[in-house]
Amino acid sequence: MEFKGLLHILYLITLQYACCYAENLAGVNWTEIGVADDYANFLTKNQELYNELFVARGYRNDLAPIYFRGNQNDSIPKFDVLISLQFIQLLGMNAQSQMASISMEIDYDYKDARLAWNPENYDGLERINVQSTSIWIPANGISNAQTLEVVYPDQFNTATIYANGTVSVSLQYYAETRCVMNVKDFPFDEQLCSIDMFNNAYDYQSIKQSGALFTKYKEGTIYDNGEWSFQNITVWYELFNGTGGVKYDFAIPRNTTFPLLGWFVIIDVGLVSLACVVLVTLPFEEGPKPEKPGIERSGVSLWMSVIVSWVYSRHFFIFFIFQVANLANFVVFFAHWD
């Protein structure tokens, strides 16, 4: 009991010191060090607001603001998290292992009532920017990635908090996700990939997730790697094992070196093969050859004479050229087929 009382006293002392320290910072005369009046007023109000949100209110970034009780109260809305895919870049595609390496930017927007304030009390200040480590962030992770890394260190990830309690956090990820090969439209193969966003900590009765695509930037949101490209990026909601999630689906077809290479090869090979069949069936004239008396021609020798005469005919050279072209078509085709 005495130990708990001592901890309580230490907590009060720490809180009092933080408040006094914050008041001293808020009372700095910024104009004395050459700061413009408007900017000095902004710094003061910005510091006062930060002290109010994170010091005076005793905010804890390890405590979730999600409402849940035994009987769900319909008058209290679910905790809504908007997940927006803002940027995606394909770094590599391994068709054999069916794995795609992707760089992407994902925004999380949600409302935390503990971080709301009245702008009139802070000279009309509508928002504040803090490091993302200072606030609670929902655990909406990518569930189907074999490798997942946050690209930038914590000190470079900033969260924006608005006066109504809305929080916006942008995170950069590197992910390696599985893609299934689709050979239905051979030879135009493509990889079917997805990015699954799930929060397994809470059920769908407590939270609501929704998705959006490319709402931040006007251009430069999708980048390919030259050999493969993104197509048909869609977002939809999925309910799995009592947990709601957002899923981004997209196809990654291979870019061919020549336009419509597959159809070109198929049509070209078909035409050349048809020409070869026509050439074989065409009649050819052969000059009279004197028969050697007393020698009967067997079936094998007869066929050999026919083949030799056909080889020396005018059709054989054209037939040979067509077959070489046919072989070249297949060489080009398989050179661009993995």
Automatic annotation (TrEMBL):
Localization terms from the record: Membrane
Alphabetical list of Pfam families matching this protein: Neur_chan_LBD
Membrane spanning residue stretches: 260-282, 318-337
Signal peptide positions (record): 1-22
InterPro entries named in the record: Neur_chan_lig-bd, Neur_chan_lig-bd_sf, Neur_channel, Neurotransmitter_ion_chnl_CS
CDD domains cross-referenced by the UniProt entry: LGIC_ECD_cation (cd18989)
Any Gene Ontology CC annotation: membrane
Sorted UniProt keywords: Membrane, Signal, Transmembrane, Transmembrane helix
Membrane-related topology note: Multi-pass membrane protein
Domain Neurotransmitter-gated ion-channel ligand-binding: 48-235
GO molecular function annotation: extracellular ligand-gated monoatomic ion channel activity; transmembrane signaling receptor activity
PANTHER family xref list: NEUROTRANSMITTER GATED ION CHANNEL (PTHR18945)
UniProt-recorded name of the protein: Neurotransmitter-gated ion-channel ligand-binding domain-containing protein
Organism of origin: Mesorhabditis spiculigera
